[in-house]
Amino acid sequence: MHPDSSACSAATSTSAVFTTRLSLPGRRQGKVRDVYRTAADPAAPLLIVATDRLSAFDVVMPTPVPGKGRLLTTMSLGWFGFLRGRGIVADHVIDTDLSAIPGLTDAERAMLAGRSMRCRPAKVVAIECVARGYLAGSGWNEYREHGTVCGIPLPPGLTQCARLHEPIFTPATKAEEGHDENISFSRACDLVGIDLMTRLRDLTIAIYMAAADHALERGVILADTKFEFGFALGPDGTPTGELILVDEVLTPDSSRYWPAEDYAPGRDQQSYDKQFVRNHLLGLVAQGKWNKEAPGPELPADVVEATAQRYEEALARLALPLWSDASDASDARQGGAR
What is the CATH number assigned to the segment(s) 123-332? Predict the structure, then answer.
C-alpha cells in the first residue's frame, strides 16, 4: 500500500512518502516530484517536494524507497551550493524555509522537512541537457550499432564504459509520460533555436566538468548526467531573459555514478545510481515477467534496501557543502547565465 501524505501525521524520518496532497494551488506531479505554487499569484515561489517514488525505464515503480526524497534533496542542495561557489550558472532555489509558506499544518511541515525546496518559477526549456563523459547506457547501445551517440561520431574500437576523450553533449526531448527520446544537436536547434541550444550545451558541459572533477577527487566517477534549464518568471508571471538551472541537479536519479576504485572499461560498472534497480528489472524482462511498461512490478525489500544504501554512500563520499538558507536567492543569481 502506498503511504500518502494526506495522512502525514504518521510521517516520520523513516516512513515513506509516495505522494503528497497539500492544500496549495497548482499541484503537478512528475515521476518523483510533486510541485505546488505557494500562492495563487503565477509569479509566487514554487514548493518542490521530492517524494520517495522511484522510476526506472520511465515507469514509476509501485514500491517507494523510504528516505530517498530527503537524500535527493540533500544532494541537490549540496550541488547547488557547490555550483554557486563557482559562478557557472544561476539557479532556481530560494530556500528550504517551510515557515514562509502559509496554509501548511505542523504535520505537513514535519513530513516536508528535508525533502522540499522553495524555488523561483520558470518557463522550462523542453530539452533534457545530457552530458556524457563515458560510453554507457543508451549511448553504448547506439555506439555498438552505429558508431555514434545521438548522431555524434565516436572513434572506432571503444569498449563499454570507456572514458571519452572529452565530454559530449547529447540532448533529449522531455516527456511528461513515457520515454524521453535522444535527439541530435541540430534537431534540438530546430526545436528551440541555435542560440539557446549553444548556451545550453556550453553550460551543460561546464557544469558536468566541474562536478566530475569534484567527484573524482573523492573517488567517484560521474559518468553522465542530465540537467534542465528554464527562463525565470518576472513579477507579472511572464518569462524573463534570465536562464537558470532548475529541477534537481546531479543526483543518482539524474546521473550515473561509479566508485572509481572498481572502474574498469569493457564491462558494466558497479554504480551509485538506479542501475541496481534496472538490473533487477532487466532480469524480470528476460524472464518475460515485465515489458518495461506501466504498471511497474513491486520491488523486493532487499532491492529497496540496497538502493537506499547506495544513495547514502554516494552522498557521504561526495562530501558536498551543507546547504544554508543564508545563501539566499540573491546568491542564486550570481551565476554566469543572464
Answer: 3.30.470.20
